[in-house]
Write a structure and sequence with these properties.
Pfam families: CRAL_TRIO (PF00650). This is CRAL-TRIO domain-containing protein. It comes from Tenebrio molitor. GO terms for molecular function: phosphatidylinositol bisphosphate binding. This protein has a domain of about 190 residues: 3-Layer(aba) Sandwich (Phosphatidylinositol Transfer Protein Sec14p), CATH 3.40.525.10. Helices cover about 40% and strands about 15% of the residues. The chain is built from 15 helices and ten strands. Strands 6-7-8-9-10 form a five-stranded mixed β-sheet. It is globular, with a radius of gyration of 21 Å. The relative contact order is 0.14.
């Protein structure tokens, strides 16, 4: 056992109603909290690499989650990956801000942190950053089913949250990558509106645009396929699926490094084949279907994966609770952002049409399944 001190740079601000003792919180035991909530002093298991800094207690009135940032040593590696030069990045930032001000169809201003996340995601190529930002704001206007009514307390979103086991883990791997796990609480549920699930995923993505303060080396996804049943996919429109993947790949500065599928059934092969045309080739090549968990944990740290997915990072519901609270705390911001989108009537030249962006319709009922 050892004692550690965590400052507000790692832990979101807590509002504490009183100083007191806390019950055990897995995997961190928080012993005391100073009034004002700047410092937390506690006890952790020696050798633990789990970086989940949060408190669940009746005396905590409110908390919000921050993603833990890479260490200074990891940041050096990540900057090389991004082609990030600390001597010129501010100049690049100003160049993008000036470009936004001059584009009549795009928002005039946007906060520096989000723009920097786009620069990193585009390896500091100004032209790639401009294209991706343009597409981001274009998608926000083109897909209201993803970008309108983004209030996590709405009943239709609450229904999705009851089924979801989808979280971005707060820590990073040794080489600076972020791990996301995705699954569901059970498979025997009525198929929900998948657009609402995608809306929540993109809300988390928008939260990360500002939360990834120094960037990560890429993203690792662990997908639990045990809940993937034919009855669910028969009710899914390929149109909405394509919109989602176009949005993720063309409009967000995400670097998908690995996709790991666990608990696979023969039906999973069909799903992958069906989704593949919507994916870029480099992402298709990064999908790995594992025969067992031993295979997964040869390439993904076990302490970065929740217990329900076979790992040792604690219960997934604790992480879900943190993310739900984080999205609730941003309710006003999400409402404000509904107007932050492209105005096609002001785009120089020809406006971008819906057909140019997507151009596919149909459903799984039209497919032949062996």
């Amino acid at each position: 056992m050892f004692q550690f001190r965590v400052t507000y740079t790692l832990v979101s601000s807590y509002r504490i109603s009183k100083v007191g003792q806390f019950h055990q919180v897995d995997p961190i035991w928080v012993r005391s909290v100073w009034d004002g909530a700047v410092d937390v002093v506690g006890i952790a298991k020696a050798g633990s690499t789990t970086q989940c800094w949060f408190i669940r207690s009746a005396v905590v009135e409110q908390y919000a989650m921050n993603l833990i940032q890479p260490t200074p040593e990891q940041q050096v590696h990540i900057r090389k990956t991004f082609n990030e030069d600390v001597n010129t990045r501010d100049r690049d930032l100003e160049a993008i801000k000036e470009w936004l001000r001059k584009e009549p169809h795009l928002p005039d201003t946007w906060d520096d942190c989000r723009i920097m996340t786009f620069l990193r995601g585009c390896n500091f190529s100004l032209e790639k950053t401009k294209r991706k930002l343009d597409m981001y704001f274009t998608m926000r206007a083109a897909i209201p089913e993803f970008f309108a009514d983004r209030d996590i307390t709405r009943p239709e979103l609450q229904e999705i949250l009851k089924l979801m086991r989808t979280v971005v883990m707060p820590g990073v791997t040794a080489d600076g990558k972020r791990v996301t796990v995705a699954g569901a609480t059970a498979s025997d549920f009525e198929t929900p509106d998948i657009a609402n699930f995608m809306k929540i995923v993109l809300m988390i993505g928008d939260f990360r645009l500002k939360a990834e303060q120094v960037g990560v080396a890429g993203d690792i996804y662990v997908l639990d396929a045990s809940v993937a049943l034919l009855k669910h996919f028969l009710k899914v429109s390929p149109t909405i699926v394509k919109k989602f993947f176009v949005c993720i790949q063309e409009a967000y500065p995400v670097k998908v490094k690995e996709v790991h599928v666990i608990n696979a059934t023969p039906f999973v092969d069909f799903i992958i084949k069906w989704v593949s045309p919507f994916l870029k080739e480099k992402i298709r090549k990064r999908i790995h279907v594992h025969p067992d968990l031993d295979s997964l944990f040869k390439v993904v740290p076990k302490d970065m994966v929740p217990e329900e997915f076979g790992g040792t990072a604690g219960k997934v519901q604790g992480y879900m609770d943190m993310w739900i609270q984080a999205l609730k705390d941003e309710t006003a911001w999400f409402k404000e952002q509904e107007s932050v989108k492209a105005d096609e009537s002001r785009r120089p030249g020809k406006p971008t049409s819906h057909e140019e962006l997507f151009g596919l319709d149909g459903s799984f009922k039209q497919l032949t399944i062996d």
